[in-house]
Amino acid sequence: MEVLRLAEKEAQLWQSAQIELYNENHGSVDLVNRIRVRDVSLESNYSGYRCFVDGSWKGSDKFFGTGWFCTSSNGEPPTMGAANIRRSLSPLHAEVEALLWAMKCMIGADNQEVAFFTDCSDLVKMVSSPTEWPAFSVYLEEFQSDKEEFLSFSLSLISRRANVKTDNLARKVRTEPLHITYVNNIPQEWLF
């Protein structure tokens, strides 16, 4: 019974974090619609840019992989990036670094209205409740600083199924034997 109560409490805290994050960026929200994990790959109406991010980490690999895939509402061709970085402490560290790198790439491209999407629920929790993640404080300070560069910013949780392209980029670059970074010059055989 205690485990069940703990699970219910964690679910309520996660739900509250999602609502707080959404309210910060979009105003009020319908609670019923916000509980579900969204499958945004099927949505076609949006403005600005959508940037899907993912990190790929494996304890036995030398590197972890980061990937992002960005689409625009005005019909521009998609942009994407993949990089491997010396393996970090955990899969969550890889996810945070993937988001930070994607944010920097969007800032560098002068994309000021960006909705970011991740399949990592802990990443969404972390940015919505930064004080509860003291081990990531340096990352979260960098996140806050970068976030201020955007006119419109959001981070939403999506299903893994909606993040397949980015997951593919992050996994493939993770297994490369040397440090490598791709931005819009992804090897043809990696493309979906």
At the fourth level of CATH, the homologous superfamily of the largest domain is Ribonuclease H-like superfamily/Ribonuclease H
Counting helices, strands and paired strands, the structural category is: alpha/beta
Strand order of the largest sheet: 5-4-1-2-3-6
Q: How many domain units?
A: 2
Overall mean pLDDT score?
Answer: 81
Terminal Cα separation, in Å? 45 Å
Which fold name fills CATH's third level, the topology of the largest domain? Answer: Nucleotidyltransferase, domain 5
* % residues in beta strands: 15-25%
* Secondary-structure element pattern, one letter each: HHEEEHEHHEHE
Assembly annotation: single chain
Task: Please tally the helical runs, counting DSSP H or I stretches of 4 or more residues.
Answer: 6
Radius of gyration: 17 Å
Q: What does the largest sheet look like?
A: 6 strands, mixed
What spatial form do the alpha-carbon principal axes imply? globular
Low-confidence stretches: 23-42
User: What is the CATH architecture assignment of the largest domain?
Assistant: 2-Layer Sandwich
CATH class of the largest domain: Alpha Beta
Percent helix: 40-55%
DSSP, total strands: 6
